[in-house]
Amino acid sequence: MIEIGTQVDLLHPADRVWHAVTDPALLARWFAEAEAVPDRPGRWRVGTSGLPGFDGDVEIAAVRRREPELLVVRCVEGVRHTELTCVVTATGEGCRVTVRETVQQGGWSVGQGARREECYRQSLAGRLPALLDWLAFREVDLRRDNAAPTAVLPVALMAEVARPSTRSRTGWVVVGSGAAVLALGLAGWALLPQDREEPTVAAPVPPSVRPSATPGPSRSAASARPTSAPPSRSATPSRSPSPTPSRTPTPTPAVAEPLQARYATVSTRVFGYTGEVVVANPGGTRATGWTVVVTLPPGSSAAEVTGADWRQDGQSVTFSGPAVAAGGTQAVRFEVRTADPVTKAPQGCTVDERPCAGL
């Protein structure tokens, strides 16, 4: 049996998630359009053609439905038959959505199941939360107590006006996922040329002192027997000074300065925001490792992290990433979902236990 699946935690109640999953008009906003199949009651066609992991549109029919926590549908995609199960479980902070798809007839090509599973994960963790924030915004009266609006609609949905669906909602439907969320750009770090070692300068070597030449015998005395003269006491040969060995200057080691980091809120939405931490290496040596810890407000969760490995433990989210070249930077961007529509920044941020700038 071939099976794929994914699971996400959402900061929204189960009934709101169920509405987004089972309403065809809402499903089209975060996954794909769905329309009833003519002359086939209880069957729907979901426009998954062209999505990662799908060979074409999928025709579905409900097998079991228990609102607002369980939906099981049978999917037909060409000659492939699968069963897709969606479970919505209430949690203390919202709900947990689990999607599982099992092949009953046929199969997937190499890598197709993995692409399909990643498509589910990205849609459930990215586009669905944005739609749920928009639905929550519609339920909030921002004019109460004459207070100024503090929430911002998701950019992708601000231009759309919600219209009641003219399609029948009986005999429905599916959960799946769809178009992959646009990947956030990863900021590259600057590569500096290799440090150049200072050339070795040899100290000047004094020239050797030549011994004075002893005059040879005169031509007129060539026939006479040479007479050896007694050596003079003052004719002690002088010693040539030893050349001074050259010294190679020792290169000064580069200073390893502490890493620096700056936090910024890149964008906001009703129940969340996008944060970014830029880690900078001002020193002259390559930093082989670093750790950034971001403290989120209570009830918040991080997702869709780019630029670092990460884990969340309660309110603390720990990021660790690749080496940063001397003078270079590394950017870490992440999505934050929160139940508080006002707070749009973390409570704290440190890099290697030193405070980040920007907070």
From TrEMBL:
Gene3D superfamilies: 2.60.40.290, 3.30.530.20. The chain crosses the membrane at residues 172-192. Keywords: Membrane, Transmembrane, Transmembrane helix. Residues 198-258 are annotated as: Disordered. It comes from Micromonospora humidisoli. Residues 240-252 have a biased composition (Pro residues). Residues 250-359 form the CBM2 domain. Residues 210-239 have a biased composition (Low complexity). The keyword Nucleotidyltransferase does not apply. It comes from the Bacteria. InterPro entries: CBD2 (IPR001919), CBM2/CBM3_carb-bd_dom_sf (IPR008965), CBM2_carb-bd_dom_sf (IPR012291), Polyketide_cyclase/dehydratase (IPR019587), START-like_dom_sf (IPR023393). Pfam families: CBM_2, Polyketide_cyc2. This is SRPBCC domain-containing protein.
